[in-house]
Structure formats: C-alpha cells, structure tokens
Amino acid sequence: MTRAECPCGSGRGYDACCGPFHRGAATPATAEELMRSRYSAFVAGLASYLLATWHPATRPESLDLDDGVRWTGLEVLATADGGPDDRRGTVEFRASFVEDGRERSLHEVSRFRRDGEGWQYVRGRATWS
C-alpha cells in the first residue's frame, strides 16, 4: 500500500507514518502511534498486523475483516499516558466508516500496554452509531 497521505489522519505521508510499522521496519513509540497504525491497518485490510499488535491475553485466534466496510476517517479525541516511557496508555478516538451505503462511526476508548514486545492493544470500550 502506498498513499500520498496516511489514512490515520496524521497529515504525513503513509511511507513516513504507518507504513514502516506495517512493514515491520519500525515499532510505534507511543500508544497513540500504535492506535493510528492499527486504524490504517483496518483501512488496508492488514489482519496479520492487527493480530500481531494485539495483546496475547485478549487476542482472538483469527480476524476476518469485513470487505463491505470502507473506513473514511479517524479523529483522536484524547490520550492518557501511553508515552515512550509509560507502560500503559489509553486512547479515545472516533473512526468513521461506510457500511451498506450508510455513514456510521465507532467511538472507542482503547487500552494499551507496553512490554518487551512494544505497545500492544489490550481492549476497548466501544459504541457504534
């Protein structure tokens, strides 16, 4: 996947933003970077990246992404901790998407944990509309 602008909404190019994470050339330094890279992975259909960045305690055995969902935007609403020196972090976001011709959104407060493997998604509290 190459794009002029990264789907995560950072304003940077994909190859300078989430692309290196997806290729395994770099690891996210913060919980927000991981969350943004996971959103971009949903956009690109990269189920293997999503599973690899999911904490083993909560990771499903497999992940089938819905081809009928088109992700259209990400807005980071708040972050708590999750910096390069933290072990835990929380990111609140809203992701917009189109499903069956209807515009919808996902509002989630996601929890992340950092250990020897880097930042990993643990779980989230989500509201769909």
TrEMBL record:
<dbReference type="InterPro" id="IPR023006">
    <property type="entry name" value="YchJ-like"/>
</dbReference>
<dbReference type="Pfam" id="PF02810">
    <property type="entry name" value="SEC-C"/>
</dbReference>
<dbReference type="InterPro" id="IPR032710">
    <property type="entry name" value="NTF2-like_dom_sf"/>
</dbReference>
<comment type="similarity">
    <text>Belongs to the UPF0225 family.</text>
</comment>
<dbReference type="Pfam" id="PF17775">
    <property type="entry name" value="YchJ_M-like"/>
</dbReference>
<dbReference type="InterPro" id="IPR048469">
    <property type="entry name" value="YchJ-like_M"/>
</dbReference>
<feature type="domain" description="YchJ-like middle NTF2-like">
    <location>
        <begin position="30"/>
        <end position="124"/>
    </location>
</feature>
<protein>
    <recommendedName>
        <fullName>UPF0225 protein CFH99_11260</fullName>
    </recommendedName>
</protein>
<dbReference type="InterPro" id="IPR004027">
    <property type="entry name" value="SEC_C_motif"/>
</dbReference>
